[in-house]
């Protein structure tokens, strides 16, 4: 041991948090300790009351303790997932604000950014969140700058979208603290071909379908997505990418199997459904925000596309939010077989990276 200061992190687990995102954030820390042969990072898990919480895949997780018993840490990271709005309580908001007053660095992974924003701790900051929640956060928190980046580091706030994006964020932090060689070695251990950075953006579903092909089609869809409240005329869209309207229609039919107007309508309805499920915005306001000329027209289009009127879907969501999830309480957690650093010493790669940044 060289006497390097240990960075400590508390992961706050909320009900229905995404287990994959948590693992993507924690595993790089474990591997940093193993490869360096030093305890560079120490982590602690907490829930609001110390009781087990459900991950979004149905796995019950027993944390190390409650937020009130959590040790002092350099960074507090909120781990969100499904149904994030229902997990925000006055107690959590008060505790997080207290951490901010003590100048702690605060972070959120997956939908954890929502909780920080709800506590007023992202006002004036730029942040990342899973793309599915971008629209809802833009409406709910106008003082927060939303980014489509995989992760965002803005002063003392670090936020990441879901899936494997927390892995990139933590590798970036490790590289900044202890050098690129260690971060690269961790990436190799996880068979992770490239460490992505803040300039990498979340992929929208269209890009998954088309890859790097058809850049004009992607440009038009990006324009559509950015102009849902006031839809752009199809002739203007075609002119923007130097196509005729007929060429535009053929392109949509060939690659997206529908007309441009139908695709535009689909985008507006999908956003409307996200806002309907994730915000308390009235159906009248929703219709305006998503570019419909009247509420009856919106309701008709919504019912034809999703099979139910928006009023019925809102009623179902309200009833689901009233259900309180009860975590499984185990008498006592299984004992950890050995300290994680002691376990790391038995690995062949222990202390294999020596050239850490001073």
From TrEMBL:
Q: Does the keyword Transcription regulation apply?
A: yes
- Family annotation (Pfam families): DJ-1_PfpI, HTH_18
Which GO terms of the molecular function aspect are on file? DNA-binding transcription factor activity; sequence-specific DNA binding
Q: Which GO terms describe its biological process?
A: positive regulation of metabolic process
Q: Which UniProt keywords apply?
A: Activator, DNA-binding, Transcription, Transcription regulation
* Residue span, HTH araC/xylS-type domain: 218-316
InterPro entries, per database record: Class_I_gatase-like (IPR029062), DJ-1/PfpI (IPR002818), Homeodomain-like_sf (IPR009057), HTH_AraC (IPR018060), HTH_AraC-typ_CS (IPR018062), INH-QAR (IPR052158)
PANTHER family with a match to the protein in the record: ARAC-FAMILY TRANSCRIPTIONAL REGULATOR, HTH-TYPE TRANSCRIPTIONAL REGULATOR RV1931C
Name listed for the protein in its UniProt record:
AraC family transcriptional regulator
């Amino acid at each position: 041991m060289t006497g390097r200061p240990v960075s400590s992190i508390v992961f706050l687990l909320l009900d229905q948090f995404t287990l994959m995102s948590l693992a993507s954030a924690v595993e790089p820390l474990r591997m940093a300790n193993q490869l360096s042969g030093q305890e560079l990072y120490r982590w602690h898990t907490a829930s609001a009351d110390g009781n087990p919480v459900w991950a979004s895949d149905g796995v019950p997780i027993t944390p190390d303790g409650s937020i009130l018993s959590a040790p002092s840490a350099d960074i507090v990271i909120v781990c969100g997932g499904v149904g994030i709005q229902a997990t925000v309580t006055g107690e959590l908001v008060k505790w997080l604000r207290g951490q901010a007053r003590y100048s702690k660095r605060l972070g959120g992974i997956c939908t954890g950014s929502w909780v920080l924003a709800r506590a007023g701790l992202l006002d004036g900051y730029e942040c990342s969140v899973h793309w599915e929640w971008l629209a809802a956060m833009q409406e709910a928190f106008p003082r927060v700058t939303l980014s489509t980046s995989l992760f965002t580091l803005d002063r003392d706030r670090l936020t990441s979208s879901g899936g494997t994006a927390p892995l990139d964020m933590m590798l970036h932090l490790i590289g900044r603290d202890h050098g690129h060689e260690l971060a690269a070695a961790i990436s190799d251990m996880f068979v992770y071909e490239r460490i992505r950075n803040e300039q990498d953006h979340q992929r929208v579903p269209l890009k998954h379908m088309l890859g790097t092909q058809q850049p004009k089609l992607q440009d038009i869809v990006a324009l559509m997505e950015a102009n849902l409240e006031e839809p752009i005329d199809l002739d203007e869209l075609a002119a923007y990418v130097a196509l005729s309207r007929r060429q535009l229609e053929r392109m949509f039919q060939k690659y997206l199997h529908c007309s441009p107007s139908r695709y535009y309508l689909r985008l507006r309805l999908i956003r409307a459904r996200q806002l309907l499920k994730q915000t308390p915005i009235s159906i009248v306001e929703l219709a305006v925000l998503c570019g419909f000329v009247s509420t009856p027209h919106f309701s008709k289009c919504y019912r034809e596309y999703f099979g139910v009127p928006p009023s019925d879907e809102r009623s179902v969501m309200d009833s689901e939010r009233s259900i309180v999830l009860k975590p499984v309480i185990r008498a006592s957690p299984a004992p950890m077989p050995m300290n994680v650093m002691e376990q790391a010493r038995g690995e062949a790669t222990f202390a294999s990276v020596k050239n850490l940044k001073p």
